Amino acid sequence: MTAQAARTAETTFAPQVRETAHAAPEGSLKELIDSTLHMPFPFLANPHEQRAAAGVDSWLRRWGLTDDPAVAEMIVRTRPAQLASYNSPHMDAELLQLVADQIAYQFVFDDLAEELGRPGPDRLLPMVCESVAILRDDEPPVTPLGAALADLHRRVRERCTPAQAARWAWNSREYVHGLLYEAVAQSHSLPPRIALVTSIRALIAGVEPFYPLCEAAQPEELTARELNHPVMRRLGRLSADAAVWIPDLFSAVKEHRAGGLINLALAYRRAHECTLPQAVALAVRRINGTIEEFQRLRRVIEPELGPAGPGYLDGMAGWIRGCYYWSRVVPRYADTAEVPAIGA
User: Fold this and answer.
1) pLDDT at 22 over 50
2) Cα 297 to Cα 80: distance, rounded to the nearest angstrom
3) What is the pLDDT of residue 185?
4) Is position 121 within any domain?
5) Is the pTM of this model over 0.85?
6) Which Pfam family is one of this chain's hits (predicted)?
7) Does position 91 have pLDDT exceeding 80, yes or no?
8) Cα separations in angstroms, 288 against 27, 80, 197, 320
9) Is 219 helix (H, G, I), strand (E, B) or coil?
10) Contact 66, 60 (CB under 8 A)
11) Separation between Cα atoms, residue 104 and residue 97, nearest integer Å
12) DSSP result, 11-51
């Protein structure tokens, strides 16, 4: 979305704040989200979820990432294998394990980046540079987190085609750089506008590195024409945005209490100086529009795709669906069910 389009969207949503105040149902913020969010994709779970959960625990211990009790507790509260299961219900056990391990890695990386970057973005530079060196130049790791990333990189190259592995590495580097941008925004004296929040959120969502793994689950590669088709590229953006904005709804309470800025609902709250439930309702409207556009464009391009295309689009849709059903039940966002939908 361009800056002008973002300003237009903010203006369009502004008159709806007062209306939203009267439309919010009695009950919790979670109930408000459930009653207003349009979720056309049914709940699905992968039958290998429990095996993947055990594998995540073992993999994190192997690289020493859960030696810190706080990290171990975070993993319990985030349930990476459950998110992988809901996002990728049809993947085989090996590929699901790779997805689950990568989700766990990104949770650890994200929390550490937030902790290090809080006093100043420059403290993130060693962590960012190590990750980029591993992903771009295949340099040996120097930290346990780097060793875990190198292991993921090796497994991706074993399971994926060279082109898919290259796309995975590129998207993963974007995610790493995005966390540096987030730290810069968090350290700025003025909170960022909605357009900047969504731009940074698109980088730190960490969803697009999984698209090559969705492709690897198909019987063959997509063609360059399919991958680079403007509609396909737009679908990728819509999927990633919806997938990350949905957890923003459920995490808004936690992020607000922690002073977080890069969250769609909190961006609307600042922009319109409204209550958190009103801001959540406005964010829901934007997410609903994003999902509706995804469905419409999917119908447009699907007849033009080869055998791998429909399954690849299923993978994109799976991230939207999975992030919703996971966010509803994960302990990390339990506060959402305790906050009233009116008066917060």
Assistant:
1) no
2) 30
3) 87
4) yes
5) yes
6) Terpene_syn_C_2
7) yes
8) 21, 25, 18, 11
9) coil
10) yes
11) 10
12) HHHTTHHHHHHHHPPSSBHHHHHHHH----SPP---TTHHH
What one-character-per-residue DSSP string does 175-203 give? HHHHHHHHHHHHHSSSPPPHHHHHHHHHH
Phi/psi at 338 (nearest 5 deg)? Answer: -105, -10
Position 342 in a domain: no
Nearest alpha-carbon partner for 129 in 112, 105, 146, 110: 146
Domain count within the chain: 1
Residue 3 confidence class, pLDDT cut points 50, 70, 90: very low
Q: Determine the length of the chain.
A: 344
Could you tell me which residue, 24 or 290, shows the higher pLDDT?
290
d(CA 287, CA 283): 6
Separation in Å, CA 116 to CA 16, 103, 119, 309: 38, 20, 7, 40
Which residue range(s) make up the domain with 164?
3-337
- For residue 74 the two structure tokens come to 């975070």
Query: Would residue 35 count as lying in a domain?
Result: yes
pLDDT in tens, 278-308: 999 999 999 999 999 999 999 999 999 999 9
Predicted pLDDT at 261 = 84
Q: How far apart are CA 195 and CA 306, in angstroms?
A: 35
- CATH number reported for the structural domain that contains residue 87 in this entry: 1.10.600.10
Please give the mean pLDDT across all residues of the chain.
90
Interacting residues of 41 by C-beta distance below 8 A, sequence separation 6+: 317, 318, 320, 321
State the DSSP string of 50-65: HHHHHHHHHHHHHTTT
Residue 308 lies in a domain: yes
What pLDDT was estimated at residue 26? 58
Reading the block at residue 230, the tokens are 């403007």
